[in-house]
Protein 1
Amino acid sequence: MSNGVAVVTGVSSGIGNATARALVEQGYRVFGTVRSEASAVPGRVERVLLDVRDAASIDAGVRQILAKAARIDLLVNNAGSSVIGAVEETSLEQARDLFEVNFFGAVRMTQAVLPAMRAQKSGRIVFISSVLGFLPAPFMAFYAASKHALEGLAESLDHETRTLGIRAALVEPGFMRTSLETNGIVADSPLGDYAPARVHARENVRAGVNGGDDPQIVAEAVLEAATARKPRLRYPVGKGAGSLARLRRYLPASIFDGAFRKQFGLDPQETARAPVP
């Protein structure tokens, strides 16, 4: 018996792949988006060729899904990318390209499925954010900015659509064993003044990813957000993610700032190596 029809963007690897598999196991009919016929999709997931940067591609993909399944009960906005480098080192073109995927891609997908959800008077939209949606991210500032923007969008959307039977939720992973660091685009104008801190920050990210959690736990949080009778707005996931959210909210700003810089080793006198997502 089906739990409904789910659409997951970016299912070829990582969190999207784990989420699509978990939804299939829970009885959903799952459509998974990929940008290429060569991209792998999990078993029993129906492939949809779709690029979240392209409105025409999204329209065609959503029409295809509705023609086959007649409804969409769950959208998981997972597709994403990253840029590694200081703000000054990152071109506006790189920043725009990142937002086209991480933020505007989710906006396009959300706008494309909302008419069907409004017509059926039900639906869930889950955004894969990050702990960097509420934390700073030295040398990944545009990635963090895109996730901060996603958080504001999702919370506002939830208020707009709640009386229509549609809920929005955010899943906020910490470090996961994904290709975030290895697939991240490097800023195109590196500057020597930033090099020592940038290299150190990237080492922290690499260590965090290598020691991170299995993406399966993110999939479990997505399932909870998708099926809870009264879903929460935010679901922090992974080692220390919930504690980080509480510390960010309740610690005095000056104390948080000092602890954050120490953890990242951003001041020359600090030698701490413990990674922080």
Protein 2
Amino acid sequence: MAIQELIEDVERSYRETQERLSDPAVYNDHREAAQVGRRLKELESPHKLAQEWRAIQEDLDAARGDGDLRELVPELEDRLDGLEEALKLALVETDPADQKDVLLEIRQGVGGDEAALWAGDLYRMLARYAERLGFKTEVLSSSPSESGGFKEVTFAIKGEGAYSKFKWEGGTHRVQRVPQTESQGRIHTSTATVAVMPEAEEVEVDIDPNELKIDVYRSTGPGGQSVNTTDSAVRITHLPTGLVVAMQDEKSQLQNKAKALRVLRARLFDLERQKQREAQEATRRSQIGSGERAEKIRTYNFAESRVTDHRIKLTQHRLDAILDGELDDFTEALAAEERSRALEA
């Protein structure tokens, strides 16, 4: 598409979206209004660039036709090229889920107790990152290990654009360090996996109660002893997909069921998105990483204070700061790489 057409397209979309937002039928439908509002927000930056492009194009036309201003032509042409590039980047389609809250599941991988401790470190790193971004964290369920880490932990992060920040954390995180229990000072390699899912709203995932098998049982603590005397723990099986979610952290069966449904909804939403991704072959090819648990995304080496992200070959020697939630450099580099790949595609 020629740049002139692109500019007109942006201006038309912006105008039409503004009109839709002021339509009483849309305005009175909260869900629709929120959706149109989000679209308008997305178009604001491209629209501003389009206006700027028009102004500079006018200046350039004037300079070309005026002997006194001709020396400005190269500079104005450069600015116009830069704006065209910025506009194309701004129009690269973003993932509709980017603005959503997010659910994360961290599980210990290979390495026994040390892997559980590492899962705990990853949880703290991601919770600190959320805190730095001004987001709220809520633990939905956890299975602590006796050594002080987690066998697994599921938590929600709430905030505008949470998924766009945390989607890069999905996959296998590998650690190389000397475990506290190691008397010979040998370096061990352990892993923990992170699954990242946008939190789905009820209207987005319709769960048929007839397709659920719900079991209740007594919750157990570490070591298997019964924690309370009522059947408050809940296990939900989604029969069509075989997905199972168990929840036992709350005292009441009702609360555990509500939390389990939240996680199930997010997993079903994620499953649907995966199917769509696979159908869009070109999109899948342009992705940096699929966020699959099996995919090794980062290595954290304690001896050298080194963290390497294998997807973009980015290495930083400031392990402590990164484990304290300073992940912005990785997030920004991964997002930039995705944008440039999308542009090529």
Protein 3
Amino acid sequence: MKTDPADIICVQETKANRDNVAHQQFTDLGFYDYWFSAQKKGYSGVAVFTKLKPDQVELGTGHKLSDDEGRILQLDFGDIRLINAYFPSGTSGDERQDFKYKWLDEFQAYLNKLKKSHPKLILCGDYNIAHREIDIHDPKGNKNSSGFLPDERAWMDRFLASGWMDSFREIHPEPYRYSWWSQRFPSVRLQNKGWRIDYINTTENLKKNLLNAEIYPEIKHSDHCPVYLEIKT
């Protein structure tokens, strides 16, 4: 953060409450910091660090199961609402996969309603879904893997068709661009056997404001790498 990578930085799966972190360090660098943590300690959670003070901060969406896990943090900047989201993973079994499908449907309904009052939206986060075959290194081998299941990919189709734009693909149509690599096998990152499951998508009415989008695999803080959007406000 000392390198000043962006005006706003969104983090998912913080696994911490604000009081667990020496957040004065962020303040000293000129960032306001906002947190929405899970009720279960050491689990899930999202945070936003921003040099631009938001006009309003909203925790959650009003859906209890999602809010208990600290999955959505919303900030208003003028007429744009930024949503930082940590989508559920279904990799631990059928129960969580069912929860993921329910969460996706509830979230889509929430976004459809939100767009009526906040038509300009940016949805940033770990979606835990690779949308198309171009977004995963081994689509055939992972056709039955959570994160690339037909119903998850179909949800992404419906989501984008409802007035959203994949900002990265607007600029980068090329393959082999990923944002996550399994840590179970350290060599897969060296071999770039990854998934693109992190997105900063916007409503289509912001398309003319899009300046740049990028993925930075050389930055290695975790099994994910940063994704980036530059937009004119």
